[in-house]
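#struct-help
A.M.: can someone run this one for me? Single chain, 110 residues.
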Amino acid sequence: MHKVPFEKTNLPGVAACTAIVQAEVTMPDNSKRLVDGHCAKAVTGNQAGLCEKHYKLKLCKLIYRSKLDPVDIMEDYEIIAWFQGEYPSIEFPKERPALIMFMKANYPVK
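D.P.: on it. Structure tokens below:
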């Protein structure tokens, strides 16, 4: 399919998400301040040391930067659901080859 490399192997000993996030902290004088820190949510599976939320975000950024067309890996029902949600009045093909050609011709990745 697409030949875009992506990291998925967790580093040994990493059990918490390493993504940097900002959190609002209340100081002793009751003022509030933003502080940088690690997400620290649990890491599961092969997600490159990130929690599920931050791993998905990382993959979405990679797809966007690489201009990958997600229609190639979408199931037919997902493409049809997208059309029905975004353009309910448009007639579109229902068979996969024609559906993918229609999608790429009319809604290309920019």
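A.M.: thanks! The beta strands are 20-26, 32-38.
D.P.: also worth noting: The radius of gyration is 20 Å.
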